[in-house]
Amino acid sequence: xxxxxxxxxxxxxxxxxxxxxxxxxxxxxxxxxxxxxxxxxxxxxxxxxxxxxxxxxxxxxxxxxxxxxxxxxxxxxxxxxxxxxxxxxxxxxxxxxxxxxxxxxxxxxxxxxxxxxxxxxxxxxxxxxxxxxxxxxxxxxxxxxxxxxxxxxxxxxxxxxxxxxxxxxxxxxxxxxxxxxxxxxxxxxxxxxxxxxxxxxxxxxxxxxxxxxxxxxxxxxxxxx
Length: 225
Known about the structure:
The longest helix is centred in the first third of the chain and has 17 residues, at 16-32. Strand 2 and strand 3 form a beta hairpin. The chain is built from five helices and twelve strands. By secondary structure, it is α/β, with parallel strands linked by helices. Mean pLDDT is 89; it is low at 26-30. Residues 39-107 form the POTRA domain.
């Protein structure tokens, strides 16, 4: 039988204080790394840019390459981007460990109007958002009184992205109807600003037809001459 008086092995006490200190140091180091060159911005990805060049969007953020990602201020960067007239909304977020993501929604310039010799671009909501060269697909609105302007924008907005670049101008008639002038000087009588979706479909068909003048005021009965 073992000697009951034999000394039993002693268990070493776990130095909990040392472990806690080590963990605290590791946490502190991990928290500090994003604020050092070890995790610096080397990519700024831009999504949603159409008329505004991506490089310009990157510059608008105010974020420099090489900036520690922990020092990036997404909200401030988004406000900087959104201040540009082309931008309707902007979101900026960190893309760990070394990137920044910028998502923007631009105003869609469906139309433009000449005011004192300057082209004012108009978006789908009828907002005059910038003075700039009209891009392809922006329809010039001519001779439309202020009280009818919203209607004219509705017509321009309804025209498909395929057909809109072919439309040079949208003109108001005296009886609250509208006429389109195409890029080859052909004329399309749109009629009133009603049933615009179906008229837009009829316009796509008209663009494939021979003739100099068309009437799509009744989109189910397109006439030409």
